[in-house]
Amino acid sequence: MGVQSWTYLFVGVTFALYLGIAWLSRVRDTKGFYVAGQGVPAPANGMATASDWMSAASFISMAGLISTMGYAGGVYLMGWTGGFVLLALLLAPYLRKFGHYTVPDFVGDRYDSNLARIVAVFCAIFISFTYVAGQMRGVGIVFSRFLEVDINVGVIIGMAIVFIYATLGGMKGITWTQVAQYWVLITAFLIPAIAISIKLTGHPLPQVGLGATLNDGGRLHLLEKLNQIHADLGFASYTEAFVGSWDKVNVFCVALALMIGTAGLPHVIVRFYTVKSVKAARWSAFWALFFIAMLYLTAPATAAFARYYMIQSLNGTTAATLPQWFSNWEKTGLVLWLDDGDGIVRYSAGDDNEIFRAGTLPVTELTHLREQHQVWLATGGSSGGDGRTTLRAKGLSGPDRDIIVLATPEMAELASWIIALIAAGGLAAALSTASGLLLVISSSVAHDLYYRVLNPEADERKRLLVGRAVIGVAVVIAGLFGVYPPGFVSQVVAFAFGLAAASFFPAIVLGIFAKRVGTVPAVCGMVAGIAFTAFYILATVYGGMATWTFGVFERGISPQGIGVFGMLLNLFVTLSLTPLCAKPSDRVAALIDRMREPEGAGPAIHIEMDH
Predict the structure, then answer these.
(1) DSSP codes, 322-353
(2) How far apart are CA 180 and CA 164, in angstroms?
(3) What CATH number does the domain containing 253 carry?
(4) What would the mean pLDDT of 93-108 be, rounded to a whole number?
(5) How far is Cα 510 from Cα 85, in angstroms, rounded to an integer?
(6) Which pTM was predicted?
(7) How far apart are the first and last CA of the chain?
């Protein structure tokens, strides 16, 4: 069987499994729809949380970033992992004891205000749509290459699958579907990594293979060989910590933004509402970290393997000797062939002026690409013309980082079934997170806005109907993001983390640990934080504004790290206004005390606001 036949088999079987689980898990009440009846066992919730957490960014894009950025790409690994520890230890147990359905629910009742609830609903929807954009792009990439269908058709298929199992089973169906998706994605990620590690180094553990000697008759270790190749081609060392624009300040800001953003992500927080108790919430966090580590500790090895194979298979070849994997992916438009006429493919940093005269790239673009390790110079006689025209028409500047993990099994010439398996894993990662995000959007509108604000008398049937209708609308909007993606997967996802860091994190932390903070300071802080962060991201990424140094730093702050400053602004506004504004009511103060009592000292809290 060929790759496409295996892909149809794996994707068909896994999609049938997801739909079957959704049918068996269908619900008829809001508690089941929003928090799975609060009866999910801790290990299962840990798997579902890991699946929800390890989106297309983790599966498809993170190793691609590490592969192209080298050691500096580890900022994503550290930020996302550290953030989950922060969430598990600092917030999850308290939020579970609070006993609500959503993050806007917590914000609205803790700050005793429907205005605070509405602001939190807006933040949750904005963050979730930003995040889901990356997932739908991942779905489109997988479909366009492995099933050889138009990317728009692939997005529509993914939309249909998510819509069916999200609307049938709500959180209950999504939870058990995500358990299945976890095993699909982790199997798909580990098997190619193990196979390549054995092939390159003879070691079955990729983590050992990363530091082992290559099976090429020489005595160099893999990382030594990569550093040598980088030096020969004019790139910075693969193992160098700070490269180009990724100086110490930006690495710190991005890592911190990812950490605190994790602790404020509504679709991850809601998973801790689905278990039976505070103790189960803590154990869920343990199991989630365990299951996440299986992929995250393998990603650096996969990244290094991909980098080695990509350069070795391409550099110095000609149009007649191009590897098959390049030809396969060239059809998707995610790798480019820029021609300057000498017939040789080069993967090289090159010389700015020489390349500029050849008409391949403007000097300013090339300088930026060198800083990002993203210079792609393929020269030969097949495409002809000015490379800049092709570059701008495609909207690409190099090998798309989102293809690297998906293409690595082909680069390593692994078996067809392994190549197809990774397609099923990429879809599982993207769809699992997309479903969780869509449910957050649904619960924010149907529960927090419709039921808690607009129609408190709505019965279960109306609330479920509104929730399912909102998922339908959200799926369509998410599909548009898949057709018109605003960036590569990890970039878009990192923006969502910055927005969460600037809005929800301070409101939740102060809501738990600062009894004096009231409604007006909290609302003003959230609005200031998310508005500043969103403005900076949109202006620098899409509006051409130069990044800010704040008069202190040598380089401008990356839009992926600006969430740290948004968080600081949120905290400053909130804490500055707190002494000037009314303190929370006695009822809210008592609520906070109960939430912070040691486990077993009091029951879970659930209050209804006065309407």
Answers:
(1) --HHHHHHHTTTSS-----SSSBEE-S---HH
(2) 16
(3) 1.20.1730.10
(4) 79
(5) 18
(6) 0.79
(7) 63
